């Protein structure tokens, strides 16, 4: 197991590249929607921000979540060791609870206006495909890492559970952002457990009440438990508009414009609860 954890960066990179290539191929073969913006307009910036995010995280956090979990193992730190949970069950519980934490974090980034300013870069993409799942502001990535590290410490999550969770999260985030047409019956069955592309696409609708739904990235159960599940977009998947209202100019797809979006054009419609209160 230690040898597996020692190769954590290679494992994550291999899974990331493999799933990205697979989903990009599948969505080209079985597209769900016609593209509103070409790959050459969007992909350089979306992939460029991934490289920037990775560099920033490595500079600020030389020890990632798996390394921190490995350093804490055997020291009795965290809820799971304190409760004496057996290792196999601790791994399962840690993966599930980490996924719950990501769901709650996602809701928080929609509910707090200052955090929404960071997160809306992810939503400002004018199309929805595998690269949309990689498009996050570097400051949001840093805040997310801080939250993840805190949860890992609070749980006392086993290092292998953290590795499994991070691999799953990367894979499912790419999968559920794919412009992929799944058979309707398969989609209904899959979304009982996992977030599917059709389920998550609703979250990228330009309509605020749809933007503020379907927050899950991996397990589909949290949206049903917390009442944020929406089965389909009102306009249908082919006709729905992707993005947010104030960043419709194609120039906003450039990397420099993406990075400065949090500093521009305050928006009072999208943060969770704002429109309802108004």
Automatic annotation (TrEMBL):
The chain crosses the membrane at residues 12-30, 50-71, 91-112, 145-169. One of its GO terms (biological process) is lipid biosynthetic process. Residues 92-228 form the Fatty acid hydroxylase domain. Pfam families: FA_hydroxylase (PF04116). Keywords: Lipid metabolism, Membrane, Oxidoreductase, Transmembrane, Transmembrane helix. GO terms for molecular function: glyceryl-ether monooxygenase activity; iron ion binding. It is a multi-pass membrane protein. Its main location: membrane. The keyword Plastid does not apply. The keyword Oxidoreductase applies. InterPro entries: Fatty_acid_hydroxylase, Sterol_desaturase/TMEM195. This is Sterol desaturase family protein. It comes from Roseicella frigidaeris. GO terms for cellular component: endomembrane system; membrane. It is found in: Endomembrane system.
């Amino acid at each position: 197991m230690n040898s597996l954890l020692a190769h954590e960066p290679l494992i994550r990179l291999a899974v990331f590249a493999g799933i990205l290539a697979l989903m990009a191929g599948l969505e080209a073969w079985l597209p769900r929607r016609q593209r509103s913006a070409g790959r050459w307009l969007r992909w350089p910036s979306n992939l460029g921000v991934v490289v920037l995010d990775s560099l920033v995280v490595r500079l600020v956090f030389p020890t990632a979540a798996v390394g921190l979990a490995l350093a804490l193992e055997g020291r009795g730190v965290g809820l799971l060791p304190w409760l004496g949970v057996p290792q196999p069950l601790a791994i399962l519980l840690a993966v599930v609870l980490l996924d719950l934490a990501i769901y709650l974090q996602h809701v928080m980034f929609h509910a707090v206006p200052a955090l929404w300013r960071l997160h809306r870069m992810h939503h400002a993409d004018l199309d929805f495909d595998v690269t949309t799942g990689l498009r996050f502001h570097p400051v949001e990535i840093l805040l997310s890492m801080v939250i993840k590290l805190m949860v890992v410490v609070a749980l006392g999550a086993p290092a292998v559970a953290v590795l499994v969770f991070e691999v799953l999260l990367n894979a499912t985030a790419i999968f559920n952002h794919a412009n992929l047409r799944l058979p309707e019956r398969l989609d209904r069955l899959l979304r009982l457990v996992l977030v599917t592309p059709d389920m998550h696409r609703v979250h990228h609708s330009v309509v605020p009440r749809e933007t503020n739904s379907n927050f899950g990235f991996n397990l589909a159960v949290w949206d049903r438990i917390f009442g944020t599940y929406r089965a389909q977009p009102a306009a249908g998947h082919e006709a729905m508009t992707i993005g947010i209202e104030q960043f419709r100019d194609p120039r906003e797809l450039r990397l420099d414009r993406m990075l400065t979006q949090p500093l521009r054009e305050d928006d009072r419609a999208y943060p969770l609860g704002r429109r309802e209160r108004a």
